[in-house]
Amino acid sequence: MATEEEDNNNTAVPAANIRADAKDKGGGGDAGDGGACVDRQPDALLHQAGLSRTAGRGSRSGPGAHSATGIRVLKRNMKRNGSRSCVTRKTRFGSRERDWLKGDTQRGCVCLYGGAADPQPPASGPQASSTPQTDLQLVLCSTSTTVEDLCAQRSGQGLYVQLHGDLVRRLDPPERPLQMVYDYLTSMGYADPARVQHEAANSDLSCMIRFYSERPGNADQQERTLLKGVFSVRKGKTQLHKWAERQVILCGTCLIVASVKDSLAGKMHILPLVGGKVEEVKRRQHCLMFSSAGSQAQTYFVNFDTLADYQRWHRQASKVVSQTVSLVDLSCYSLETVPEYLFYCQDLTHLNLRHNFMRLEGPGSLLNLPRFSQLKSLNISHNRLGVFPECVCEILTLTELNLSCNNLHTIPVQIGNLQSLQTLSLDGNHLSSLPEELGGLSQLNSLGFSFNNFSHVPTVLERLCAVDKLAMAGNRLESLELSTLVRMIHLRNIDLRLNGLRCVKCDTADPVSHVTQLDLRDNCLDSLDLNSVCNLETLHCQRNQLGTLTLSGFTLRTLHAGSNRLSTVNVYPVPNQLTHMDLSQNLLEYLPDWVCDCRKIEMLDATHNLLSELPSRLLNSLSLRKLLAGNNHLQRVPDLLDHIPLETLDLQHNKLTELPESLFYKALNLKYLNVSANALESIPPSSQSEESLSTLQELYLTGNNLNENCGALLVGHQNLRILHVAYNQLLSFPASKLSKLEMLEELNLSGNKLKTIPSTVSSCKRLHTLIAHSNQITVFPEILNLPEIKLVDLSCNELTEIQLPDSLPATLQELDLTGNSSLTLEHKTLNLFSHITTLKLDQKSPPTPGDSLGSSALWKHGYSEMRGQRNKLCVSVLAVDRFGDGGEGCYGIFDGDRNEEVPRLLQCTMGDVLCEELQHSRTDAVYMCNTFLTSHRKLGMAGQKLGASALLCYIHREVSESGGCFSLTVANVGTCQAILCRDGQAVQLSKVFSLENSTEEMERVKVHKAIITEDNKVSGVTCCSRLLGCSYLSPWVLPKPWVHTEPLCAKDEFLILGNRALFERVSYQEAVRTVQAVRDPRAAAKKLCSLAQSYGCKDNIGAVVVSLHVGEDSCTCEPPASNDELRGPPPAPVPVSAPPCPSDPGNLSFSSGIGTEFSSETSASEVGSEAGSTASDEPPSSGSASRPERRCSLHPAPTPCGIMVPGPAAAATHPGVFQRQPSSATFSSNQSDNGLDSDDEAPPEGVISNGSKLEVEVDIHCCAFQLRSGALESPKELNLENRHGRIRRQNSVVVSATNGCLLAVCGRENGDLKKSPSTSSLFGKKLSNGSVVALEESHNIIEVALEAPKKKSGYFTAPAQQDPEDQLIVPPGLEQEIREQLKGQSLLVSGISTPPTPTCVKDPLWDQPHPHAFASSLVPGPGLATIMQQEVYDTAL
Fold first, then answer.
1. Among 1271, 1268, 1289, which Cα is nearest to 1338's?
2. What are residue 493's DSSP bridge partners?
3. Does position 418 have pLDDT exceeding 60, yes or no?
């Protein structure tokens, strides 16, 4: 009825006669109640909001949206995500709205907000709930609809747009709002017009682009811009004047007292406040005294009505009087005009109008700025002016003018009028030339025109004799002629970075003697000869392609030439003034001789070269304080001849077998030594006698061949604060020696063979970090009594118990105990750990429904996160070994750099978004790109100012190919990277989106006129050109990802995911070698992070390792186990980690950092090895003979379901025919339907009686049935009975009852959406025994299971691997009955279709063997419309 009512109320009119009479006809919230009078036009449709804020909630528009009657325009309460996050209303479209959108992709919807609310609402407080919310109107229009059309339709004065929750701009009449939204979404990365249309209609987009029907109010802005009110005022300190009501205005630097009737035209009293006073009058309530400065100071008393007014005026006036100059800062206020009262501040000297939308004409526009007679400094940058405001040239008092980032193309000749101008900033425009009149500004000493379009050095600079710096970074200068600089003798500093320079020509015999600083970074130079620049002091030429470099050394002080291809550097004469030199990341095989002759050299960086030796003269230099020579080919270090002032020595990643014997007692100032990743077998003594003068504070010895004898040599370093001795050959650490390291703060002993940490560690009272994972420690060290302990990592050890003190130190923040298979913690112990921010444990958890399938996940992962020296962890990990319906996996890593909010949000939502996008497209580039863009939108307000690098890996089947081979699709933004190990070699799968690493991204950012600072950061914020979040940096920083799909093959071993900090320190190939040497992915991930820390990383580090061995024919069949094939003995079973469990498709594996954490790092293969089994009192077997063989669909068992005939011969003949899963279930005798009760004299074979309880051992062949839909559409129940079994069909639930064991096959429609990996657990009911059954399916089974008595250990606390004695041999008396039962079951599933042949995965050699994995992932498609995907739940009743 609502639709009919609206049809009667709507009349079409010609497009030229758009009426503005669309108004509400009633107070109802729905159009169906009160109706709406709407003039429908092909290009504009306006739907007015109802008055009720309690309108019914609908679903988000788009596919799957619920139908609704009538046109609903909502006025609702806003739901906010987290702290000040974006509006997430769910807009409900009616049928006509959907028809409008479907008609043409150029049609769409614009969400139009009212102006009642603050665009950035205040934090939640007592009044937050009562504040009226913004009205929302849905405007259906087309891309050709202009602002003028919309305003004419609604009798509005104008429309406003707000980007990223920042400034609000008035739209010009010709602008088209919907086209603006479409262009914005297209620039983000959306390519499909239909998807762009769908996203434009999403109200979540308002956090990035929002339209207002009127300018939104901002009380805080108005307060800082203008304070105005009518109060009681008295002039003078004496009582001669009476109190009178006057209008009082505080604007800029003045207090204005005027008549109440006409404040602008009447008599006005202006009181300058800069340098004056504002004081409280104690004799009167809410009264302030304002006094001006100087001998002729005047005073006014103002009595305020309320305490709030009094505090507001006092706060703002105090800021003004405290200024030393007459400055007014109106930046970032979305101003179009200057407040009229500001022009009365005639003492104003500095005016900042940056980041506004100032008009060029009209009242209060820039045209009125000459009214400020004393103005010296004017900043009108970032105002979208488009043209140079010539009126500015009339302010003759100006000494500083900033017009950066205004889209200027020319400079008028009137600029020559500003004879007092000293500083002129024109950066970030489109200038290609400068007027000759500019040369007449004799006092101009600073001229900036970086990031413009200059292709040559302007000749006008020859006349600007006072300018000493040429700031031309980011222009289009391809060649530099030194003869041009010869004529500009006043230039001292030249900045030509980011220009694309290809050559520097020396076409003159005259020396360039005046240039002292030259910056040529990030260009395309292949050779550089600056010998004619004879007085050069500082040269920056990093990140070019230099093969040769020639310099004059007369005055050279600093040389930065890293990241080139230099094989030699020629400097003549010897630079005796040189103090700092960076030659890192080049091709130097030796250091030039002149380096050793430098008398003042203090710092030398020669890392990442090809050096085979260090000159003895260099190391014995009397000036060298810092030497970095890591990542070379050094085999020895020369002996020290005398005492040297060396303070920092980095020799990591070389081939050193020993260090100089006299190193520590000759280099007494040495504070930092890093010799990690060498082949050291010992370290030199700290002194020649018992008394040591060592000042060493940081010592890194990771990755050598040191044994326990090195502990005695460390005693002399009593000032040692940081000690890393990880991954050596330590069997123990001398207890007496450790007690003497009293200053120790951080100790890393990981990756050794320690069985215990000495108790003398309690003597290290300053110790705050102890990392000792991947050892053989059995006893928890006595470290919880230390007063400053913060982090303890004892994962991957052999701990059995923990002895705790009565109370734990309040400083303890993180405790990692994962990977200790024998460790059991009591509830009392867990209660003591309750205050710890991050607690990581392996928690034994019952199997999930996915485990009951009898198939393990095909992938195994481990991850590690380390804070470093930061107080917070800004890295998060997403890991799902069972993603979707088949053997797919999803892994991701998110690095927020300095914020932890965005990585956490991405970790929680990105898996869900990928699931949703897979329903819309199966094209890799499409669904991955849309996943990133949608996640970017879902960040809401958190993503406006904060951002994060993100990498997502999705392992899936390629159904288009024969056999359904596995492929790996990788998408990333930012600096997180993915490395694939293929045949022992590292294959880079991702792209690094940083300005230093990507020339294409650098050019794109330059085209959009971003200001790139000297540290290569966009606007000084981030070095990344693509991020999720940081939307306020659009269009410079975009969320569109790099997407790459790599087919997996038999040579692929594992996948490594890491953030920037990891791969800055650990090379790709070293990471591959590291993981190859460690069998467990979790231990491998931890080793990667520990290595990065030992190599000098101080930042957050994150690493994920995923095993990926794929068979030659893409087969998941398990290869026959042999001793020759394995690299070592199978690892001990690791307890199943606490939920969320990787094996459960409904749970994500979350990272640490939020509250008390139970780590979910246990691999899916370990979880799967317990799946489908039940509790057993027998110890697990480590042999492979008791484990079922995994088969795939390419090489299936001879029959889909069979009986294992008793005897070894049968087992050998049919190794994969039947999957053994011993199941135990306990029942009360009156609930068992196998015909037995407690009075039976003896149970049949296979049934074990235990008083009133029965333990029934049965064979369960767990497979994923795929039933044709026709076989399940019968409304009748299917009843097939036999002697001891009954098969029935009820509500699409198949229950097979054999000897009290139920096998539930729960079906679902193929067209249903996939369950979200982070929320699907909400769709099922978790039983007390740990299993999960769908709420709507087999509910009767849940009730029966809840009634069953429980064993003390629980039904599903299964051994990690089956014991040989636990093999079930079907008793002869029950064999025939079970055969009949299985025949009846096969009758029920007679319509089974042959499943697709998915790609299969073989076990990696360093992985634990998987039990049977039945991959059954079906992608909905036209060819599979008649197939229903089934889920199997083993309830073991």
1. 1289
2. 469, 517
3. yes
Any idea of the CA torsion for 253, 259, 265, 267, to the nearest 10 degrees? -80
Residue 311: its pLDDT value, please?
A: 92
Rounded to an integer, what distance in angstroms lies between the CA atom of residue 355 and that of residue 345? 22
Per-residue model confidence (pLDDT) at position 179:
95
One-character DSSP codes across 1185-1228: TTSPPP--SSS--SSSS----SSHHHHHH-TTTS----B--EEE
How high is the mean pLDDT of the chain?
A: 75
Cα–Cα distances (Å) from 317 to 254, 290, 333, 352, 943, in that order, read 9, 9, 19, 18, 35
* Rounded mean pLDDT, 942-953: 96
End-to-end CA gap in the chain: 53
pTM value surpassing 0.85: no
Q: For the packed helices 924-938 and 901-920, what is the interaxial angle rounded to 10 degrees?
A: 140
Q: Is residue 184 classed exposed, middle or buried when 0-12, 13-18 and 19+ CB atoms within 10 A define those classes?
A: buried
Which residues contact residue 569 at a Cβ distance below 8 angstroms, ignoring those fewer than 6 apart?
549, 551, 559, 561, 583, 588, 592
Q: From CA 1426, how far away is CA 1305, in angstroms rounded? A: 18
Q: Alpha helix locations (H) across 1008-1094?
A: 1060-1065, 1068-1076, 1081-1094
Please tell me the predicted confidence (pLDDT) of residue 220. Answer: 67
DSSP 8-state secondary structure symbol assigned to residue 870: S
User: Rounded CA gap, 632 and 634, in Å?
Assistant: 6
Q: Determine the residue type at 508.
A: T
Q: Which amino acid is at 263?
A: S
Bond before 573 cis per omega within 30 degrees: yes
Cα separation, 326 vs 916, in Å, equals 57
Strands of 820-859, DSSP E: 838-840
Do residues 429 and 406 make contact, with C-beta atoms less than 8 angstroms apart? yes
Q: Distances from the Cα of 669 to the Cαs of 599, 637, 650, 673, 696, in angstroms?
A: 19, 18, 14, 11, 8
State phi, psi for 181 to the nearest 5 degrees: -65, -45
13 and 53 Cβ atoms separated by less than 8 Å: no
Q: Which residues face 648 on adjacent strands? A: 626, 672
Write the pLDDT tens digit of every residue in 608-622. Answer: 999 999 999 999 999
Token representation of residue 449: 């025109």
For residue 699, what is the enclosing H or E element? strand 698-700
The tokens for 443 are: 């006092």
Residue 670 confidence (pLDDT): 95
For the CA atoms of 161, 167, 171, 175, the dihedral, rounded to the nearest 10 degrees, stands at: -70
277-280: strand order across its sheet: 268-272, 254-258, 244-251, 226-235, 299-303, 287-291, 277-280
The amino acid at residue 478 is E
Tally: H helices and E strands in the chain: 26, 63
The answer to whether 1010 and 1062 have CB atoms below 8 angstroms apart is: no
Q: Tell me the C-alpha distance between 417 and 388, whole Å.
A: 14
Residue 165 CA: distances (Å) to CA of 210, 742, 896: 8, 52, 20
Q: Which residues pair with 1266 in a beta bridge?
A: 1429
Q: Which amino acid is at 246?
A: R
Q: Which residues contact 985 (CB under 8 A, 6 or more apart)?
A: 1069, 1072
8 Å CB contact between 1329 and 1349: no
> 753 and 778 in contact (C-beta within 8 Å)?
no
